[in-house]
Structures are given as structure tokens and as C-alpha cells.
Amino acid sequence: MFAEFARLGLVSxxxxxxxxxxxxxxxxxxxxxxxxxxxxxxxGQVMPGPNLLAVTHYGYAIxxxxxxxVATAAFxxxxxxxxxxxxxxxxxxxxxxxxxxxxxxxxxxxxxVMLASLLVLWRSSVHHxxxxxxxxxxxxxxxxxxxxxxxxxxxxxLIGAVIGL
Length: 165
Fold this sequence. Notes:
Elements: H1 2-11, H2 18-28, H3 34-46, H4 54-93, H5 97-125, H6 129-144, H7 149-163
Helix pairs in contact: 1-4, 3-4, 3-5, 6-7
Transmembrane segments: 58-91, 98-120, 126-143, 148-164
GO molecular function: chromate transmembrane transporter activity
Subcellular location: Cell membrane
């Protein structure tokens, strides 16, 4: 479990790696269900701190409190160490042409990973046209306005609960 969560942490890009988490935790290992994956991600969105604190939830679902501790330490520990090392190197070399090219090449990669995460959440959470309309409306509000994301999520959850989604 440590090795799997460490690998997931190392390949996560800005916390947007839900598609790979689904592949490993749900489809390959069968450690959690698609619903646990979606619930954990939603919980991570409303909690303060990194949005992938959901890995603590996943670890807990897999093996209780010890699983939560292992998943969290494995996901964040190696990545924090490597990030500190890369930050020190980046600081010294950030003006080199290869560094600028690398930074620019990561933008489409990040967009693709975020799109894959959106598709995973959509597939595991939206099962009715009303839910699709509600999710689309919430997305539009967050994209085009400065409404607090927590308020949009709470309102969507309340509406979903009232209409029975």
C-alpha cells in the first residue's frame, strides 16, 4: 500500500490525478469503490489544505486508521522531499532556455490531467440528466463568477438532496 500511494503522489500533477487513482485504487486493486473515490475527492475539495487530502480518506477506507496514516505519509512524504530538491535546482537554473521550455511544455499536460479528472468524477457521480444540469450550472457559476466555491458546492449538495439525486 505504501509503494502504491507513494507512486501516486509522485505522479500527481498539482493534485489532479484522479484518473490514475481510479485506475489503481478502483479498477486494478479493487481497494475502494467508485463512490468512495468520488466522495473522498468531494471531501478533499471542501476541507482546508491540499485537495488530495482525500488520500487519507482512501487509506482509511482500505485499512482503517493505520491505512489512513500510511496513505497520507506515502502520498506526501516522497513528493515533499523531491519537491524541495527540485525547487533548489530550479531556483539556480530558472533562466536557462531549457527551463522555460519545460515549464511551457507542462501546461498542456496539466490541462489534460485535469480533464481526465473531470471525466472520472462525471462518470462516477452524474447518473441522471438533472444531475448533469446541476453539475454544469455549478461549473458555470464557478467559472464565470467570483462566488465562493464552498457555497456553490453546498448549494448543489442541498439541491441534489432535496430532489433526491
